[in-house]
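Quick one:
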Amino acid sequence: MLHFSRRSRFLSPRDPESFALKRLSLAVLAVALTAGACDSEAPNKAQRRRPIDRGDVVVVEPSAATFLNARVIAVDGTAVRLQLESDGRTLHAQLGDLYSLADNGAALSVPGVAICRDTGAWYPCRIDSMSGGIYAVEFPHGKQRLARPELLQATGVTAINVRRFFRQRSKRSSFAKGASRAGAPSAPDGWHPRPGDPVLVAKDGYWFAGRVLKRVEDGLRVRLLARSAEYVVPAERIIPVPPYKGDIEPGGYVLVEGGAAADAWKLVRVEERRGAKLRVRDEHGHTNQVARVAVVPLRRHRPAP
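Output:
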């Protein structure tokens, strides 16, 4: 705090030059003291964030909410060349995409988002709570409790990316739960595949377009358009291609054709009916419009009588 002599309160305005000089002197003194105070704080800020240099071990975000361990091998201004610890590949990045493990003392927001380490790898995470210096966090693959060195503060665009990652993950989870309640694609009652029929075949968790070749002892031999390969599959893993009878209400789930005839069919949710058209949304939130007669409805299996 600046302390002034009581005499300064009684500078005579009748001596303009002396009055102006003294006011100027006081102003210069105040600026000098303020600058000195700022200079005294600058080293502390520098100590709180050490510049990234060659040889440093860092975490890099090469794409949104994806994190890799790397070592800095060159720094040129804001451009950095890295060597990935996973496979030795080199990667070019910007300083703003890096997190130094040597500069990991920043305060974390609770609740909030961060970058968390699990068995040597770094993931987007969400901090739920903290007690006794131990953080309860949510990984993409589950929940854990971590000590402070296992977390990095997510800043700027990274924090936005991590929040978006968990929002999208929540939407995908909600989508999957709704689809599970809806049931599964199934053949209409009384339908039996015959050689030559165009069908959809369940393979590796997806449905692909194919054609029945013939019946065999273990089921049916089919050829998939996607792979030009033949497989023997049980009859219950084969359904007819559309159209299907019955109404499809908003909120229901259906299969629609992929981008090409050979692609896996996509699971989507019906958002709205517009005459002979349906507005549908996939697990990523992308919407599209499809013909009612071109979809396969999901339905719950009815117990055998």
